[in-house]
Amino acid sequence: MAETKAGFVALIGEPNAGKSTLLNRMVGAKVSIVTHKVQTTRARIRGVAMEGDSQIVFVDTPGIFKPKRRLDRAMVTAAWGGAADADIVVLLIEAHRGITEGVEAILAALDAHSNPNQKIALAINKIDMVPVETLLALAQDMNARRAFDETFMISAEKGKGVADLRKWLAAELPEGPWLYPEDQIADLPMRMIAAEMTREKLTLNLHQELPYQLTVETESWEERKDGSARVDQVIYVTRDGHKGIILGKGGETIKRISRAAREELSEFLGRKVHLFLQVKVRPNWLEEAERYGEMGLDFKDGN
Ligand SMILES: Nc1nc2c(ncn2[C@@H]2O[C@H](COP(=O)(O)OP(=O)(O)OP(=O)(O)O)[C@@H](O)[C@H]2O)c(=O)[nH]1
């Protein structure tokens, strides 16, 4: 019998590089949140992909960017933490943006946050947006700055090159027993996935900065005899005014958000869901330790 392999792969990159899209494509289920807005990923979400005898456990980290607030700092620390613990690190960059200041900053910090036993691959994403010459020049330029173990050119959205990357990852992982039951696609508690779904709908339905000033928590999850689930969530905002915006005129906005989140969760679970949303004002939630635990982040890291 062939030896099984298993290990952790960290996807790192600037916000919006396409980490969530790539993860979802590799795992084949929507476990991470994808939107057009940056910094949507706050927690270290894992997805598990099987490839032959290998089990690849993905750590989808928040984008790495210059931290300003405590929450930002905790997110960036979590991102680097994910990289340090992984067997393989994949640096994802955007083909059309090339070597940005952000990419340079990540390259400069990569040595300090990785170890010599780790393989580090480069994945140039969004190749659908540039001509092939640009792509080859970028691959060369990046490899001149750092000797990557392998370079991949992919389109996470269109699925190009993704299978090659997956095969390479599977082959490079250390030998060992699988870490999760084969049919388990994500170890993220369902409560958190449900909260992320609601947060995604809020992000899509609200404008500008507001989505970054709120957080969603699943307070209770009740399995009902008829096979449905009752899910109660609280949306925490920092100001009274924000609460009004989320509720909307006659509660229209929150109803729309609730309907969209319920439909997605119900589709994901394959059964009926009763979703109840409440909006609460907590001026200091950005500074409260327990909010960080809920998001899988360490409060201390924000200091
Ligand atoms: N054209 C093109 N767009 C892509 C591709 N991959 C991802 N995108 C888009 O890029 C945007 C960002 O993708 P995400 O997967 O959310 O990026 P992320 O790195 O997880 O972002 P954060 O969660 O903010 O860190 C989305 O609008 C995607 O649809 C690609 O191969 N080609």
From TrEMBL:
Keywords carried by this UniProt record: Cell membrane, Cytoplasm, GTP-binding, Membrane, Nucleotide-binding, Ribosome biogenesis, RNA-binding, rRNA-binding
InterPro entries named in the record: G_ERA_dom (IPR030388), GTP-bd (IPR006073), GTPase_Era-like (IPR005662), KH_dom-like_a/b (IPR015946), KH_dom_type_2 (IPR004044), KH_sf_prok-type (IPR009019), P-loop_NTPase (IPR027417), Small_GTP-bd (IPR005225)
One GO cellular component term noted in the UniProt record for this chain: plasma membrane
Record-annotated Era-type G domain positions: 5-175
Residue stretches making up the KH type-2 domain: 206-283
Region described as G3: spans on this chain: 60-63
Keyword set includes Cytoplasm: yes
SUPFAM superfamilies: P-loop containing nucleoside triphosphate hydrolases, Prokaryotic type KH domain (KH-domain type II)
UniProt key word Thylakoid: no
Location, primary (coarse class): cytoplasm
Region G5: start-end pairs: 154-156
Gene3D superfamilies attached to this UniProt entry: 3.30.300.20, P-loop containing nucleotide triphosphate hydrolases
Compartments reported by the entry: Cytoplasm; Cell membrane
UniProt: GTP binding residues: 13-20, 60-64, 125-128
Stretches for region G1: 13-20
One MF annotation (Gene Ontology) recorded for this entry: ribosomal small subunit binding
Top-level taxon: Bacteria
Assigned protein family: Belongs to the TRAFAC class TrmE-Era-EngA-EngB-Septin-like GTPase superfamily. Era GTPase family.
NCBIfam families: era, PRK00089.1, small_GTP
Name the record gives this protein: GTPase Era
Source species: Celeribacter indicus
Lineage summary: Bacteria, Pseudomonadati, Pseudomonadota, Alphaproteobacteria, Rhodobacterales
